[in-house]
Amino acid sequence: MFIGEFHHTLDDKGRLAIPVKFRIDLAAGAVVTRGLDRSLFLYPKEEWEVLASKLAALPLGQADTRAFARLMLAGAMEVEIDKSGRVTVPEYLRHYAGLTKDVVVTGLFDRLEVWDETAWKEYASKTERDSNDIAERLGNIV
Amino acid sequence: MFIGEFHHTLDDKGRLAIPVKFRIDLAAGAVVTRGLDRSLFLYPKEEWEVLASKLAALPLGQADTRAFARLMLAGAMEVEIDKSGRVTVPEYLRHYAGLTKDVVVTGLFDRLEVWDETAWKEYASKTERDSNDIAERLGNIV
DNA sequence: CTTCTAGTGGGGACGAGTGGGGAACAAAGA
DNA sequence: TCTTTGTTCCCCACTCGTCCCCACTAGAAG
């Protein structure tokens, strides 16, 4: 299970260090792709394959699900973890997520997300303000 | 079962002593995460796993529940109790809860909460004033 | 008064994160 | 065909943070 928030930096070769505790789970291969809210999703290869087939199975009829599937499938790129625990993030994905230097890597159960640091801070503080309301609505679930 | 209120201090390495009576229940592993009202939640590992899978099961489609799940999952960090009964609270969580030196650890049945001392005092006195009203609203539950 | 333990503080070793140099390989031009 | 340029990958080196261990103090208990 991936959890936690890690503040790392991209070097000018576009390399990003993966937090140590996640490396074993990603050693067998990983896939980065465009995610929601201008973040990148990073899945272990197996998880990705499950997700990809689900996406492929989505009905062609609806424009929005089709767009969503396109976004994720077309954006996907397989990456490998190098000897010092880093992956190279393709330029077009860095551009999509607005990544420059300071990024945040977050663990979200079955995937990692990569955010530009300032974007993450904004998103987090905005969500904090709303969290009580959301928690109330979720009261019966959580 | 966790109950009680304990006043401890964070040292400048971010370490926090866990009250003795709680240590056995947390020895198998514990998880700290962002809580509500600018506090931190600290769960025994098993409790956490139940909660985490509930959060992970929330639909990706809705922006607000997605944000809430993100905040709690990404905020979470597994901690271990060291030889002298302390856990290290990650910097970003200390920042979130506004923890500096004096903190309050409270037991809330299935979890602990960690508060900045002044924030706790404010919250407690406010809640005391409102307690009659709250009690009336809870009348049918308790 | 003595002893033990909970809470606090700090020093030192190791490893994670980061940056950069250089080899290998591919593409482009002469 | 040979050379040059540029990109990618691999490896090494430095630094800062984290973890582990030990020491001290105050208060409780016998």
Task: Present the secondary structure layout.
2 copies of one chain form a homodimer.
Chain A (H helix, E strand, L loop, with lengths): L1 E8 L5 E3 L2 H7 L3 E5 L5 E5 H12 L6 H13 L1 E3 L6 E3 L2 H7 L4 E8 L1 E6 H22 L4
Antiparallel strand pairs in A: 1-7, 2-6, 3-4, 3-5, 4-8, 7-8
Chain A binds a DNA duplex (30 and 30 nucleotides) through loops.
- Largest sheet geometry of chain A: 6 strands, antiparallel
Give the strand content of chain A: 25-35%
Give the beta-strand count of chain A.
8
Give the low-confidence spans of chain A. Answer: none
Radius of gyration of chain A, taken over Cα atoms and rounded to an integer in Å: 16 Å
Give the rounded overall mean pLDDT of chain A.
89
- Gap between N and C termini of chain A: 18 Å
Q: Helix count of chain A, per DSSP?
A: 5
What's the overall geometry of chain A? globular
The largest inter-chain interface, given as chain pair and residues per side, is: A-B, 26 and 32 residues
Features:
homodimer, alpha+beta, six-stranded antiparallel β-sheet, two-stranded antiparallel ribbon, 8 strands, DNA-binding
Structure, described:
The structure is a homodimer of 142-residue chains. The first copy, chain A, has 142 residues and is of the alpha+beta class. Chain A contains 5 helices and 8 strands; from the N terminus they run ββαββααββαββα. Chain A has helices spanning 20-26, 45-56, 63-75, 91-97, 117-138; strands at 2-9, 15-17, 30-34, 40-44, 77-79, 86-88, 102-109, 111-116. A 6-stranded antiparallel β-sheet of chain A has the order 1-7-8-4-3-5, with helices on both faces. In chain A, a hairpin with a 5-residue loop joins strand 3 (30-34) and strand 4. The radius of gyration of chain A is 16 Å and the shape is globular. The model of chain A has no long low-confidence stretch (mean pLDDT 89). Chain A binds chain B through residues 1, 3-5, 7, 36-37, 106-110, 113, 123-124, 126-128, 130-132, 134-135, 138, 141-142, and chain B through 31, 33-34, 36-37, 49, 51-56, 58, 60, 63-71, 73-78, 90, 92, 96. Chain A binds a DNA duplex (30 and 30 nucleotides) through loops.
